[in-house]
Structure prediction request, 433 residues.
Amino acid sequence: MRLIKAFLRSAAYERRFLAKNHWDFAMVVWVPLATVLLIWWIFSQTQITDLPIGVIDQDNSPVANTVVRYLEASPDITIKQRYYSPAAAEAAILQRDIYAVVIIPEDFERNILSSKPAPIVLQVNAQYGTHSGIIQKSVQSVAGTLSAGVEIQRLVKQGMAPSQAAIAYSPIGIQRTSLFNAATNYQQFLASTVIPALLHILAMVIGATTIGRELRDKQLGRWYRFIDTGTPDVTLFKRSETVSVLENKQDSVPDTEPLARSKAPKPVSILVLLFGLLGKYFWPILAYSLWSALALWLATPHQTLAITSIIATYIGLVLLMILSFWLGAIFTLNTFSLRMGLSTTGFISAPSYAFAGVTFPYIAISDSAKHWSDILPLTHYLKLHIAQLQMQAPVAVSLPIVYGLTIATLITMILTALLTKRALAHPERWGAR
Prediction:
């Protein structure tokens, strides 16, 4: 009963604080909700289409006009404007009006009819990797289609049957089969993985601030006394005189020191701390469990997935959120400084998505980067997420990740309690910003 009371008192303590502090409440409720919905809305157009490019036609021949028509017919790109000088096209690229320019050189048709090389020049802004790749693929597809048509017509004119001409032009073909995400759905590929990464960042910030504000305001001792003994929640009062009166009624021990100089309680029970911390983080855990469910619901509307895959992914995401809370608390408690805790959480969580192997291949990064990636919990969750929701792998493949996140959560929970006990033993270090 003592542990249950510690949990309930701590949850009530935190509920009253969130009710009176709108920014902290927003970090638990409104900011993550807005983040999930905003990211999903940004990727509501699931495929990239109509990327603007320019054309410089220096030949103005029927074949060149055919090239322009083929480029305009490509679904991935659109010709925004024709330019008549390289300088004008370069200025448009620098202003990001277009991302590439296709140059059809002079004598383009004459070289084709004379069986001479007739290259099409593509100048693309490779600073934008996704845009560049899509534009290059589309222009190359157009050039390949036109080249095939020209060569097949030449062979037919020489007396070869059209079917034989097609085989002679391209005797080796490629049969490409997309195993996963065949429609190149960027909402499924990026949005469904970016959302857990952002929730991971927000959860670590909440983990750091929830316990860090008790250290900063020198209220850690009073919080522990309240959850352990039921002493009135003096953090609700602003005047130290009122606090002193309440403490006199409870303990019959005068306390003339200001509220900010709260002493550390003795002795400290690890189990009480564990349940108190669970109560303190109960509302963030509950809220982020709901946002995790919302994120997965948005990620799986048009897919036929096994219920076991959805459950395993949801458990993994909730464990990632809880683990993030404890990690944020650990970084703050270890340094006795909310500012240092927030800095550490930002340093670790903000770039974690770049090391997860979603946008840049994990196998291509350096060995030291792989070691760092393996330490980050987000990397392992996203492996679970992609395997279950996008590749539809058997659940058994991802169960070791679920077990690993569970063990890591339990370890960090115990470590948080131990660091809280150490912080309670050093009240002289409270108050750091």
